[in-house]
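Lab manual, section 2.4: Encoding a predicted structure.

Procedure: take the sequence of the chain (218 residues), apply the prediction step described in section 2.3, and record the output as structure tokens. A sample record is shown.
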Amino acid sequence: MKKGNHQKGFTLVELLVAIAVFAIVVTIASSGFVNALRTQRQVASLISTESNMSLVLEQMAREERTGYLFCHGLGSNSPNNSSTASDYCGCTVAPSGYTDPVSGNSLPVWTCNAINYYTADGSEVNYSLQNGALMKLDSLSSNPSPVAVTGNDVSVKYLSFVLFGNLEGDHWTPRITISIGAAPSSSDPAVSGDVLQLQTTVSAREIDCVPGGGAAGC
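Recorded output:
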């Protein structure tokens, strides 16, 4: 007597269920992989932006430690608000709550959207925000136009300088607080929306320029 054929196969329903389960697993795995790639790009962009901005802040801090005549000219303690790019600061003035230790006069604090000053080598330097880039203008440079010091992949969102003790004869060491916000320059809103906020405070090495003494060049 012949034995019956007991070989088993998959029914159509079982195949459809298996295909559906496989599709779900592949979708979940692909979504996780895509999210991981997107996160990696975001992290890389933020690291690049933070590195660029840290270098820029360090460059500015080194210059300002030996700088003088911050946002005003020799013999003038008024904020420099001229329309000339080389010396424009755009400052607003408010009481600081501190006084000159010798005269007792109250001293102001200046909040500026740009800064200009003289460096130790006598160069007049200006930093300002233009079209999402931090620009530097150096009077001793061979290039008479502002030059971007931030990379093309960085978009600067805001820039602010708070100055105190920068007046001639106020008997305070100039102190400059730099605040800057930047984001990766990208069409991806998940990347460009991450604004890194950096701030540093720099104290000049000498009391600001006083006629007859003080910083170099006075």
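Check your result against the sample. Strands lie at 91-99, 106-112, 114-118, 124-130, 133-138, 147-148, 154-164, 175-184, 196-203.
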